[in-house]
Write a structure and sequence with these properties.
With about 500 residues, the chain is α/β, with parallel strands linked by helices. The protein contains 20 helices and eight strands.
Length: about 500
């Protein structure tokens, strides 16, 4: 009835205006749009979406520190910082100023978010999670309002749950807390950061309800210095890629609910996965289980685990079929890599394959005996030689090179450039900004040329072993490192 009466009144007004010579078409267009939105429910959906974006909801955390492997140093440092939340009386008696913020920095996939959730469980705190991108929009003041609302929601959530502390976790904080003055189009980013600084300064350390701000970033160098000073983010916890023992503990965690065959060696998998993050290792375990299911196996074997490493590194096997000549060229190329790798670093080759995966037509997987955190000149030059070996093998065996070595050359050039900037070249200690492009180019080119000559000499003296490796790859497509070493030593 009310809708019908409203429509009648509007129609009467339009007729009256039309009778008096008023142009009613713009009014009718606006009214038509409003009626369409009202009757289709679009207006209510838009309003609901706006309200939802303005509310940051808490999430329950059931992750504990026992569920995180490979980060013993980060866990211990984080536990120490959380003592003021667990035992505020003891901290107060010692005259210790409680921490207001903890910043987790490190590469992607190393477990920063899991550490924040474990911290909430460890301290029995309410846990609120948000992303830095949620606080920044084109409208001025929206980000600052959401920051204020986040701290209000944290305190309200803790009271509803009957807890005395709350942890606010902001992921990708560099989006909202970058260095001020870099955004010249508008000051929305700066206003959002200013509001975060004000909220952290206003957090009372002696209040009954304690709030701790935790944040994670992959780019700590982008953060504003005002955010990192004492009294805001008091402590920075580095969450690095795990070492071999850490990788083993992560693999054990992710295979707890998976059946492993008797031949599965997680220690060998940990050795083969240097440079993998926790997320990569979880994917390896998951892909190995999928492969076992695909093969109708009742348990995950060592072969499934090793194939899963290749899949995570390079992608799924392709159905691409190469011509015989192209396939032999790939076998020679990968055989050259494997040959030089074994000559300059014996025992380093784990496997060689010429089965196409992702963007690679072949691949040599190396497994260093120990994790290398620093490298010497001899180790860097050995890496350059391995990169150059594929192209050199093609030229010496087949008479010409191909475009398949483009990525190898990029890697070799980058290693040589790192040598120059690290003071390991004939230039000695250098400063990058003071080094002319011509001098840098010539020095890198000299390093590459010197190593290329050494690679040519090694391959020329072992060309028969190289042909044997290539022929064997043509038959089997994949060779284990032990077989490579047997052919080279024959």
């Amino acid at each position: 009835m009310l809708k019908a009466a409203g429509v009648g009144i509007i129609a009467a007004i339009l007729v009256f205006l039309l009778w008096n010579g008023v142009d009613v078409w713009p009014v009718m267009l606006i009214l038509g749009l409003l009626l369409a939105l009202t009757y289709t429910g679009a207006w209510s959906k838009l309003s609901q979406g706006r309200r939802k974006r303005q509310v940051v909801l808490g999430t329950e955390s059931h992750t504990t520190f026992n569920d995180i492997g490979g980060q013993s140093t980060a866990k211990n440092e984080l536990k120490e910082a959380l003592e003021f939340v667990r035992h505020p009386e003891r901290i107060r008696d010692m005259g210790i100023r409680p921490l207001k913020g903890i910043l987790l920095t490190g590469p992607p996939g190393t477990g920063k978010t899991m550490l924040a959730k474990a911290a909430a469980e460890y301290t029995d705190s309410a846990f609120l999670a948000a992303s830095g991108s949620e606080f920044v929009e084109m409208y001025a003041g929206v980000g600052a309002q959401r920051v204020r609302q986040l701290f209000v929601e944290a305190r309200q959530l803790a009271r509803r749950q009957g807890q005395t502390s709350a942890i606010i976790f902001i992921d990708e904080i560099e989006v909202m807390a970058g260095k001020r003055g870099q955004h010249h189009s508008h000051l929305e980013y700066d206003q959002t950061l200013n509001q975060l600084l004000v909220e952290m300064d206003g957090m009372g350390t002696a209040e009954n309800l304690r709030v701790l701000v935790m944040a994670a970033t992959n780019r700590g160098d982008l953060l504003d210095p005002a955010l990192l000073r004492p009294g805001r983010f008091d402590r920075q916890v580095r969450v690095d890629l795990p070492d071999r023992e850490g990788r083993l503990s992560i693999l054990q965690l992710h295979t707890r609910n998976k059946p492993l065959a008797l031949d599965a060696e997680l220690g060998r998998v940990a050795q083969e996965t240097f440079g993998f993050s926790g997320a990569h290792l979880e994917s390896v375990c998951n892909e190995a289980a999928i492969m076992a299911l695909r093969d109708c196996a009742t348990a995950i074997s060592q072969k499934h685990l090793m194939d899963a490493i290749d899949k995570v590194l390079l992608g799924e096997k392709l159905d691409r079929t190469l011509r015989a000549g192209e396939l032999y060229r790939v076998a020679v190329h990968e055989g050259g890599h494997a040959l030089i790798a074994e000559l300059v670093n014996p025992g380093s080759v784990s496997s060689v394959t010429i089965s196409p995966r992702g963007m690679a037509l072949g691949f040599v997987r190396q497994a260093p005996q120990d994790d290398r955190l620093i490298q010497t000149i001899s180790e860097l030059t050995a890496d350059i030689q391995v990169c150059l070996a594929g192209s050199a093998a093609e030229r010496l065996v087949l008479g010409e090179r191909s475009t398949g070595a483009a990525n190898d050359f990029e890697k070799a050039w980058e290693i040589a450039r790192r040598m120059v900037l690290s003071g390991l070249s004939s230039l000695g200690v250098v400063q990058e900004e003071a080094l002319s492009p011509e001098s840098l180019y010539q020095t890198i080119q000299g390093i590459i040329s010197e190593q290329q000559a050494e690679v040519d000499r090694l391959i020329d003296s072992h060309v028969e072993q190289l042909r044997g490796v290539a022929s064997h790859l043509m038959e089997t497509e994949t060779m284990a490192g032990d077989m490579i070493r047997a052919l080279i030593s024959a």
